[in-house]
């Protein structure tokens, strides 16, 4: 009989819980039902109309007298001498900062010696700090430092054009403050 008594006890407890829930349903939900009725009774709000979309006038590209942007314009390319003499020396030993693209290099300061020589402090993206001077090579395009000023470092790169000619390209690395 103890098994039946336990089952009866569980059944009574379950009935008590159901009774409490029904009581909560009746008393606790009436205010919620009233609020829902009130919200549904309100007049609907006005929806703002979509803004007017202005028509954009079409444009037809007519390349009759214009140059093709995908073909190099040989008249505007300035090569200081023949393209072969600009070619970098393939036998020159590479310097440390030539392994990094210029976008990964930041000029973070300068040092000046008593004789007036100005050095630039360059930090790589990996956090390494280097001291460079005019004549050092940096970047992956045979870039050589041509000028160092307290707020900027100028570099001339030698890049190979699609036509197979070498040309000089000037880049600037400004001083960045930490």
Automatic annotation (TrEMBL):
This is Pilus assembly protein PilP. It comes from the Bacteria. InterPro entries: PilP. It holds the Pfam family PilP.
């Amino acid at each position: 009989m103890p098994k039946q008594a336990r089952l009866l006890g569980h059944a009574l407890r379950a009935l008590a819980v159901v009774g409490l829930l029904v009581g909560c349903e009746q008393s606790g939900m009436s205010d919620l039902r009233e609020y829902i009725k009130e919200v549904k009774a309100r007049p609907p709000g006005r929806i703002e109309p979509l803004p007017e979309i202005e028509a954009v006038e079409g444009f037809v590209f007519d390349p009759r007298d214009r140059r093709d942007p995908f073909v190099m314009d040989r008249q505007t390319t300035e090569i200081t001498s023949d393209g072969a003499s600009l070619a970098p020396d393939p036998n020159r030993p590479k310097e440390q900062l030539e392994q990094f693209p210029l976008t990964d290099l930041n000029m973070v300061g300068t040092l000046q010696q008593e004789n007036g020589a100005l050095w630039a402090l360059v930090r790589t993206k990996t956090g390494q700090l280097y001291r460079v001077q005019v004549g050092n090579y940096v970047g992956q395009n045979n870039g050589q430092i041509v000028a160092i000023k307290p707020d900027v470092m100028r570099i001339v790169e030698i890049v190979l054009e699609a036509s197979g000619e070498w040309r000089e390209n000037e880049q600037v690395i400004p001083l960045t403050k930490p």
